[in-house]
């Protein structure tokens, strides 16, 4: 195992591949799950050999990127940004491949990586998932099995992409897309938040509506929607105070990406586009194939200097340690209120007064 648990990104590869099942899950700060060897460990070294945190999968940094959006307006409307990941997945499926991406799993009531093999099912993995997704042992094994038969596209956070590259030894059939992210929160925090919103089993969940940040959950009987600032989980996430500890020192948050393709958000002319970066020959071949399905312009990579997550790890806010201490004692809602008191008061005023009046007041202040 890696010596410093702070380097554990939570990919679960060691847990999934240990021949003696000697790796256990350990819950630590803010409900985050880590992996450690137990007394059954015989120090065979397999986990050390596979651990992506101990390897370097960096590709060369690129000079340009594409600012792109899909031509299909229906796909665009259902995507968090420009819909690039949809077209990449569609291309892989159209040539007989399979795709693995993060989706809401109804059975476990959590976000997990699933396999899809039809274009109609791409909708299941569309949209941002602002939580750490689980890749279980069966999924890792299924990916390895499918790589022997067909092309496999894996879409995930850079640390998850690195895990797949390590497990497959960069199999020629593996195509990867890494997502520009600023970090992930623990599934436990999300579960607490969802229990505050709805008690019935959730059929679907989404965190974005284009450029609008909101949590939307759908059950068999109703649809619930909350703006980001109205709920603790989302406020903490957008203020970077609930992320996995490793995210604050993420080795993948830089221009030397780990995926064949990198995708993320890029706002241009008030429109939420996809940024697309081709990092390898395989990545470039796929991007070339989807160009007829997207509107795009080539941009200089230096325009992404303002995208902090693309250039460096997220800075840990000073309130994080306070929230962590309170969370262990009081749970999500009260810990948030105690750690971000001024923000909570501001949000309550916004709800009472309304956005339109606040905009009017700000306009009057600027006129003075």
Task: Give structural notes.
With 368 residues, the protein is α+β, with helices and mostly antiparallel strands. Helix content is 35%, strand content 24%. It is built from 14 helices and 13 strands. Helix 6 links the parallel strand 6 and strand 7. Helix 4 (84-94) crosses helix 9 (281-290) and helix 11 (319-330) packs antiparallel against helix 12. The chain is globular. The termini are far apart.
Would you summarize the structure shown here?
The protein has 368 residues and is of the alpha+beta class. It is built from 14 helices and 13 strands. The strands form three sheets. An eight-stranded mixed beta sheet has the order 5-4-6-7-11-12-3-13, with helices on both faces.
Count of individual helical segments? 14
Q: What characteristic shape results from the CA principal axes?
A: globular
Distance separating the two termini: 62 Å
How is the largest sheet built, in terms of strand order?
5-4-6-7-11-12-3-13
Mean pLDDT: 92
Percent of residues in helices: 25-40%
Major pleated sheet: 8 strands, mixed
From the alpha carbons, calculate the radius of gyration and give it in angstroms: 21 Å
Q: Which structural class fits the helix and strand makeup?
A: alpha+beta
Helix-strand sequence: HEEHEHHEEHEHEHEEEHEEHEHHHHH
